[in-house]
Design goal:
The chain is of the alpha+beta class. Helices cover 36% and strands 17% of the residues. It has 12 helices and 11 strands. The strands form 3 sheets. A 5-stranded antiparallel β-sheet has the order 9-6-5-10-11. α2 packs parallel to α11. Keywords: Membrane, Transmembrane, Transmembrane helix.
């Protein structure tokens, strides 16, 4: 019965559809743009300093290194195969204490991201991780968002076409229902229930007192139950000034999304207390489209507009002398990405 209920939920809410279905109409537009650009990989010049323009196999650490220290969480790059005593010593040097966030350096859509609460969890993560990864300071600020920014090569100022606000998955107790029962009552939670209920910090039989709220997922990814809301109305001149200046710290950066945290919405709107968690390139989505109230056709139109922007930025950068990736380069990079 739960499987049938989940199927109906996914069927009636396009935000849960598989990525390939969502993007299928865009494929033909991409082919048309490729013909106009005379390159299947025209998008790689949108952000020439990012691997494949940031579409895939892009190092998060490489981008974060360019940002001012005060605008990012303390971050440690961990080479695959590193020894725990060495990493522990580096954490002490950086004054990084648990809880911490661990994530693949070259990963997407929240895969492999984990909140680690002790040394044994870090040890297991290191043993299970096949690739290089990052350890980041856990920013406990309650406000999290993704802000999309782009700037044409011949312009000094850019635009903010998309802001997504994130609401973390949580349940509120009624004093009688178990945690498992509460999860089953929420469609968004029910879709990820199998993974949630297997976590060591989740007791399916726990009964929360009435009115008590419990955070189930601290990682702000849509495929882990986080609700995405359209926050485009909050784009303002102060934010544009802030991200115009920030974009110039990133070499040849013109298109992408900044995933961030801040103490509150009010602080965010003033550009105060912002911490950049990740910088995403061409692979980044204007994630406000996944608002539960959003319509599929509106989302498709938004994606079409964004790929037109990618095309125009790439064209401008080619006029500046940047060349798109060759087929051989793209194939090599793709194989490395799949192996990882």
């Amino acid at each position: 019965m739960p499987k049938l209920t989940n199927f109906i939920t996914k069927l009636l809410h396009w935000e849960f559809w598989p990525t390939w279905i969502v993007y299928f109409p865009l494929f033909f537009y991409y082919l048309w743009l490729s013909l106009k650009a005379r390159s299947l990989f025209f998008f790689t010049t949108a952000n020439p300093d990012m691997e494949k323009g940031g579409l895939y196999n892009c190092s998060k650490y490489k981008q974060l290194k360019h940002l001012p220290v005060e605008l990012k969480p303390t971050t440690l790059f961990v080479k695959s195969g590193s020894r725990l005593p060495l990493i522990r010593a580096k954490l002490q040097t950086l004054d990084l204490d648990f809880p911490i966030i661990a994530k693949p350096d070259r990963g997407e859509r929240g895969k492999g991201v984990a909140l680690l609460k002790n040394l044994s969890q870090l040890k297991k993560y290191m043993e299970d991780s096949p690739t290089d990864f990052l350890i980041q300071e856990y920013i406990s600020d309650p406000f999290e968002a993704g802000l999309f920014y782009y700037r044409f090569p011949d312009k000094h100022s850019g635009k903010i076409p998309s802001i997504v606000l994130k609401t973390f998955l949580s349940v509120t107790g009624d004093g009688k229902s178990t945690l498992k029962e509460l999860i089953q009552q929420i469609p968004r939670a029910r879709l990820v229930a199998n993974k949630l209920l297997k976590r060591e910090d989740v007791n399916p039989q726990e009964i929360l007192p009435s009115g008590t709220k419990k955070l189930l997922e601290p990682i702000g990814n849509h495929n882990r139950g986080t609700e995405f809301s359209n926050g485009n109305q909050f784009a303002n001149q102060e934010l544009l000034y802030f991200f115009d200046a920030l974009s110039y710290h990133l070499p040849h950066f013109h298109y992408g999304r900044f995933d961030l945290k801040a103490p509150s919405l009010e602080d965010f709107l003033k550009g105060h207390g912002i911490k950049i968690l990740e910088v995403n390139g061409v692979n980044a989505e204007p994630a406000h489209i996944y608002d539960p109230k959003g319509k599929y056709l509106d989302a498709i139109n938004t994606l079409f507009r964004h790929w037109k922007i990618i095309f125009l930025i790439s064209k401008g950068n080619r006029q500046e002398g940047f060349l798109p990736a060759t087929f051989e380069m793209a194939l090599k990079n793709f194989r490395e990405w799949k192996q990882n």
